[in-house]
Design a protein that fits this description.
It is a single chain. This protein is of the alpha+beta class and 507 residues long. The protein has three domains: 90 residues, Winged helix-like DNA-binding domain superfamily/Winged helix DNA-binding domain (Arc Repressor Mutant, subunit A); 215 residues, Alpha Horseshoe (Serine Threonine Protein Phosphatase 5, Tetratricopeptide repeat); 171 residues, Serine Threonine Protein Phosphatase 5, Tetratricopeptide repeat. 56% of the residues lie in helices and 6% in strands. The strands form four sheets. A four-stranded mixed beta sheet has the order 3-2-1-7. The chain has a three-stranded antiparallel beta sheet with strand order 4-6-5. Strands 8-9 form a two-stranded antiparallel sheet. A hairpin with a 2-residue loop joins strand 2 and strand 3. Helix 2 crosses helix 3, helix 12 runs parallel beside helix 14 and helix 19 packs across helix 20. The longest helix is centred in the middle third of the chain and has 31 residues.
Length: 507
């Protein structure tokens, strides 16, 4: 990196803003703002053809390239010629030594604290390194002023919107993890005022996330501020009712019943020290850390899914809740479950409404802290099934294709598995067994690459059904056996797809 300061500062977390030479530069078009953010976050050279296809998918290639040329010219005018590099074939944003980007800085300085484990890089060994990593993280979260490119939407660029939605959700999830870590570590360091401040911001960002409420309530109780804790419990009750139509878990209610000896004072005697802040157990299995630079990726055994305890020993005041009861389900995932339940009961119209609601949900309603499959991909896949059940075959196939395209873009293996199963099933029913066979082959490769053995019966039933439709010898026998195995192992998806296969929807 150059020793000189960057010439341009680009702020994309929140409303987009460009600072250059002490002033503020402006962009006239939303596509220019979107293009700048895309180049800033997807580092490296991009072909002009691919960018034209991303932002002007409905335009012929020549017209799309012409419009891209005008947007690139606007970026050069706003940032300076040195900030946009490339030639007639490729374009990229200059390195961060020239253009500083708040989102990149946010990622870099939260990375060391994102893994929710004690031996996370930067938080083990040298106490000074650990403290420095936490301080950098504390500064980094102030860069998050709101969702990525807040308020920006490009109506006729669906692939860009898919990218933007996934990035918004990933950055918001990263902030949730960073706030949780900061609250826990500041409490451990007896800096309780800061810990409570981070916990408050956490529940404002993710009101559906009950472990966040538990952390805040427990910090308040153990700091001797029981009245405030009771107030937050009522806010928690209201948030869970509003977001999930649910009540707080018994362990959350038990937090305010603790009788805690405040113990020695913290922060110059300003507040008592929490004994364990929160009293929940740590999960025995640990999160494996970030799967990429833009968001943690792990299984349901992560600390955020099973509790947010700071102390390895549980509080004696109450029994810790099990991991299965402390999952964090955002509104979008709840609507998905409701839609699936309607499908199973053949309430197709209600199912359609539920799945469509997920597709228009705001980013803060989609954040999934249990590491479940991408909500919007799942909604598209289930919407395809519901449309087929309603007799709209063409619309169903279109929705399944959109689900498959989104799943490939967001690189979520579980969502991709769902999308492949639905697309393969509907393709076979729609008279395209070759596509179904291709989906089955892709699903098999996905199973091997990501160790997803529970999806094997789905791959087998797709493959066998497609081979039977193509007239392969003995395929009908294989298809029958595969269908029985699929029905026995695939739960709700198996039940619904068997209903679809046995339906008489028009082809």
């Amino acid at each position: 990196m150059s020793s000189t300061a960057p010439t341009v500062s680009l702020y994309v977390l929140g409303p987009p803003r460009i600072e250059r030479a002490g002033g503020v530069a402006t962009l006239k078009y939303n596509r220019a703002r979107g293009l700048l953010a895309y180049l800033a976050l997807e580092r490296g050279f991009h072909t002009r053809d691919s960018l034209a296809e991303l932002f002007w998918p409905n335009e012929p290639t020549v017209q799309g390239r012409d419009k891209l040329k005008r947007m690139v010219f606007e970026l050069r005018e706003a940032l300076g010629d040195a900030c946009i590099e490339g030639d007639r074939y490729v374009v990229r944003l200059a390195p961060i030594s020239t253009v500083w980007v708040d989102a990149i800085a946010f990622e870099t300085d939260t990375d060391p604290v994102i893994p929710m484990v004690d031996d996370a890089p930067g938080l083990s060994g040298d106490a000074d390194r650990a403290s420095e990593a936490l301080d950098r993280c504390a500064r980094a979260i102030e860069l998050y002023r709101g969702p990525l490119l807040q308020g920006l939407r490009i109506d006729d660029a669906p692939d860009f919107d898919i990218w933007l939605d996934s990035q918004r959700e990933a950055y918001a999830r990263r902030l949730v993890f960073a706030l949780t870590r900061l609250a826990r570590e500041r409490a451990r360091m007896r800096r309780i005022v800061e810990a409570i401040r981070y916990a408050r911001r956490l529940v404002e960002l993710a009101p559906h996330h009950e472990p966040g409420w538990q952390l805040l309530i427990d910090l308040l109780v153990r700091s001797g501020r029981r009245d405030e804790a009771l107030h937050e419990l009522e806010r928690c009750r209201g948030a869970l009712a509003r977001e999930l139509d649910a009540e707080p878990h018994a362990s959350t209610l038990a937090l305010v019943e603790q009788h805690v000896d405040p113990g020695p004072a913290a922060e110059s005697g300003s507040e008592p020290v929490p004994a364990s802040a929160s009293g929940l157990n740590r999960s025995a299995n640990r999160n494996r850390g970030p799967g990429s630079s833009r968001g943690p990726s792990s299984g349901p055994d992560s600390d955020l899914g099973s509790g947010v305890g700071l102390d390895p020993s549980p509080s004696p005041a109450f029994a810790p809740a099990s991991a299965s009861t402390l999952v964090s389900v955002p509104r979008a995932q709840a609507r998905l479950a409701i839609g699936v339940a309607h499908l199973i009961r053949a309430r197709t119209r209600r199912a359609l409404t539920a799945f469509e609601a997920v597709l228009v949900a705001q980013p803060d309603q989609v954040i999934d802290l249990t590491f479940g499959a991408d909500a919007r991909t799942m909604a598209l896949a289930w919407l395809a099934i519901a449309r087929w059940q309603a007799g709209h075959a063409e619309a169903a196939v279109a929705a399944s294709a959109m689900a498959l395209e989104r799943a490939r873009r967001v690189a979520d293996p579980h969502a991709l598995a769902h999308a492949l199963v639905v697309d393969g099933a509907l393709s076979r029913l729609h008279g395209n067994p070759d596509r179904a066979l291709g989906d089955a082959a892709e699903l098999s490769a996905l199973i091997d690459a990501h160790r997803l053995p529970h999806w094997r019966p789905a791959a087998d039933v797709l493959s066998a059904g497609a081979r039977a439709a193509l007239g392969w010898p003995h395929a009908n026998i294989d298809a029958g056996a595969a269908t029985r195995a699929f029905n026995a192992t695939m739960g709700a998806m198996g039940a619904v797809l068997l209903m679809v296969w046995n339906s008489h929807a028009p082809v």
